[in-house]
Amino acid sequence: MNISLAVGIIFLAGAAGGKLARYVKLPSVTGNLLAGILVGPSVLGLVSLGVMKELTPINELALGVIALSIGAELHWGTMRKLAKDAAKVFLVEALLTLIVVFGSLYLFGLPFRYALIFGVISIATAPGAIIACIRETPTKGDFAKVLLSVVALDNLFAITLFGIIISFMEVGLAAAEAANTPAIVMASRDIGISLLLGISTGVFLVITSHKAKSDTRILVSALGAVLITVGLSNQWGTPALLAAITAGAVYINFSRSPQRISRSLMNVEDPILLVFLTLAGAKLDLSVLPSVGLIGLVYIGARFFAKLVGSRVGTTLTHFPISWKRNLGRALTPQAGVAIGLAIIAEQKTIFAPDTIMPVVLTAVVVFELIGPILVRKALCDVDSV
């Protein structure tokens, strides 16, 4: 199958799935994912694994745009009154998720390093599904801003902690010894490079928003900058999402025209999200579900419990309305691209055996991406304005 035909199938299948999902009162995200599963290798096989690998640039562009959009939500002026409370929720929820998932899997008998990596990966939340739900659900007050802030902090923390822990785990290996570099220095270097790249991209976007005469030119520059940022991050082995989120935060806080890039991206974000979510569904290998057994069930149950309880405990430290406290946890349940990306990186390391991390994470993604958007939309519809 050629690429044009595959992209056409993905577009139409994703659109049809989203339409059918809305018809039966489900989020379109769920329909996109189910359509992807249907046309992917697990069911009809209309889109093969080989073709999906060739579509990696589209996936990376989508992740970059999503991360940039999340960073652009971190406007200091808007978040000043919410940032303190959002940080409280994040700290309790993220740390409890890490502890509960790690502790559950370790007590279940998993080796320490595996349980710890699963605990770190469990913190990550799927921004694409949440953004898509926010766009099609009327929201009240600042709940959506708080939600996206916690999502951004979750993913930043997961990516940063993952890099540090992987570096420490590799200390005794030949690569680290050859480099003769302490693990903390290696991790700090990667994170520092990612931040510098994100700041550079953000400055470029600020200049572009000032100089460009039309939103069309801004769009071209923004998409090019996102691809270069993600591409350089991948080439250097640094966290691409961290760089893109940083770029969005720099842009939104230092641009005199902060809405220009957001306005220009609005024209392409919907189709980009549709392709991203449908591709995410197509990549899900349903054959791994029976093989993960109790490990997958423990991971899913522990993460779901920790997200709900951690968010509820965290919100007790805030002045949020009762409806926010009741709903924030279930809005943080989706998990997809960031978790899969971290699992791929982990399995590329010699400290982990092949096919030991990805099947568990993929199984969790299947569950959380199907029920998560439903919970997100219910949460968004149930909150009160402030």
TrEMBL record:
Membrane association type: Multi-pass membrane protein
Pfam families, per database record: Na_H_Exchanger
Biological process terms in GO annotation: proton transmembrane transport
Signal peptide stretch: none
GO CC term, one of those recorded: membrane
Residues passing through the membrane, by range: 33-52, 89-108, 114-134, 146-171, 191-209, 216-232, 288-306, 327-345, 357-376
Record's keyword annotation contains rRNA-binding: no
Location of the protein in the cell: Membrane
A GO molecular-function descriptor: antiporter activity
Highest taxon in the source lineage: Bacteria
Keywords from the UniProt entry: Membrane, Transmembrane, Transmembrane helix
Annotated Cation/H+ exchanger transmembrane domain residues: 10-375
InterPro entries: Cation/H_exchanger_TM, Na+/solute_symporter_sf
Protein name: Transporter, CPA2 family
Species of provenance: Alkaliphilus peptidifermentans DSM 18978
